[in-house]
Design brief:
By secondary structure, the chain is an alpha/beta fold. The protein contains eleven helices and eight strands. About 5% of the residues have low confidence.
């Protein structure tokens, strides 16, 4: 009995379309402008639009107050104008830089759909001054974004085995950036040394994502607390741990002792 190949051909075409996806930047989307709103395949009636959005109406900067959802950032900034000073501007600028860095480290499903989890991770970490080593390789991939010449489409052979985040730019990786290590089934070696934003939440996410493969972990110089030790206990494959010396903190010392008793094959090195 002959089988029809049409369904398989359609699935293959959809797969090719998904792989050849070209992501648009935020600036390109803004230049295209808002798309017209459609209702049941017809343009949205002009008489149902708010008067500020209708053609021919005069629009000023104060129109932010008559929009449907005014920006809370703009309202907050305008309310602080009477008390505006250089100190207020400096604090606002620092807050905006932190929000921008958080946004830049977020996991992008579109990048993974185009490059795959491993090659996407190589792009993410090397472009942020980190070093990556692939499975079966001796040399590390690192350097300037213009000289790396990494593939811009999914390519076989890129299996990430080690990541060194010691020189991660802008004070280190954050909780949002740790998600870019997900689905790396060959990751065995990870160094997060002196990344000041790494805390118990980052280690807990790391334990859930890579705890079954990660064998070496360096979290010296990070924000360590009692909950961090409990999160490390959820990593069954961990064999070597580098951690900051807890000093006189008896709770962390006791937790590390319990961790070594629970995992006889784990070697803890305090620096």
């Amino acid at each position: 009995m002959a089988l029809s190949l049409k369904p398989f051909k359609s699935y293959r075409s959809l797969f090719c379309l998904g792989r050849s996806y070209c992501e648009k930047s935020k600036y390109e989307i803004e230049e295209e402008g808002p798309k017209p709103r459609m209702v049941y395949g017809k343009p949205y009636p002009e008489w149902r639009k708010p008067w500020i959005q209708r053609d021919g109406e005069f629009r000023t900067k104060l129109s932010v107050f008559v929009e449907k959802n005014p920006s809370p950032d703009i309202l907050k900034f305008m309310s602080s104008i009477p008390n505006f000073s250089f100190k207020v501007f400096k604090e606002w600028y620092a807050e905006m830089k932190e929000l921008q860095e958080i946004e830049n480290q977020k996991y992008l499903p579109k990048r993974t759909a185009t490059l795959g989890s491993n090659l996407g991770a190589v792009h993410f970490f090397t472009y942020r001054q980190c070093a990556v080593r692939l499975k079966g390789a001796q040399e590390w991939i690192s350097g300037d974004i213009e000289t790396l010449n990494l593939p811009d489409r999914y390519t076989d052979g890129y299996l990430v085995e080690a990541v060194d985040c010691t020189n991660f730019h802008h004070n280190g990786i954050r909780y949002e950036g740790v998600q870019n290590l997900s689905n790396l089934h060959c990751l065995k070696w990870l160094r997060l040394k002196n990344n000041k934003h790494v805390d118990v939440w980052c280690i807990d996410r790391l334990a859930g994502q890579n705890g079954h493969t990660l064998e070496y972990l360096d979290i010296s110089g990070c924000n360590i607390c009692l909950g961090t030790i409990f999160a490390l206990a959820r990593m069954p494959a961990l064999k070597f741990l580098v951690i900051t010396d807890p000093g006189d903190d008896l709770k962390i010392q006791a937790a590390l002792s319990m961790l070594e008793q629970e995992k006889p094959g784990l070697l803890v090195h305090a620096v």
